[in-house]
Amino acid sequence: MAPPLRLILTRHAKSSWKDPSLDDFERPLSRRGRRAADLLGKRLAAEGLCPDQVLHSSATRVRETWERIAHHCRARDVSGHDDLYLSSPAEMIACLRRHATAPAVMLVAHNPGIAALARRLAANPPAHPAFRRYITGATTLLDLPISSWRELDRETRANVAAFISPRDLE
After folding, report:
1. For residue 82, what are the CA distances in angstroms to 63, 99, 107, 110?
2. 14 CB contacts (<8 Å, ≥6 apart)?
3. Fewer CB near the terminus (10 Å): N or C of the chain?
4. Is the sign of the CA dihedral 73, 69, 140, 44 positive or negative?
5. The predicted structure's pLDDT at residue 2
6. What is the pLDDT of residues 38-60, one digit of tens each?
7. How many Cβ atoms are within 10 Å of 142's Cβ, its own excluded?
8. Rg (CA), the chain
9. How many whole angstroms separate alpha carbon 146 and alpha carbon 160?
10. 154: domain CATH number?
11. Does 89 sit behind a cis peptide bond, omega within 30 degrees of 0 on the bond before it?
């Protein structure tokens, strides 16, 4: 039997509000966000949890989050998707069904959708308070009981293998 597929759900790291004239889509990471994304990448690499494939929103803060993680984790397939910007859980599932092909896929996106998707899929939600709020940089690793990404749907329930809060990495 093939091992379960792994889904890594990451909310982008903390963004900067320094320039109020920037459109929301163009906001970059703050200094704290860059540090948190670096620490997350280090943790994933140290524990052998790096993804094989990454699907991310095209928004600047999300791309930058992945780029910082990528300094520590190499994925063979990385793609940005405009339809992941402020997407719903249903839209995220549709994107995964269309584009995910690897055994371990990271999805980097925005709240409230990424938090709602993590809560919906988690059969055993972690007790960590940051899971409910899904703070910036929050990351959940889920082992899915399916053999193909096309089987993923709103009824799928997954085992939470790990939950990482950037505040715990400092």
Report:
1. 11, 13, 13, 12
2. 29, 30, 32, 33, 36, 136, 137
3. N
4. positive
5. 61
6. 999 999 999 999 999 999 999 99
7. 24
8. 15
9. 14
10. 3.40.50.1240
11. no
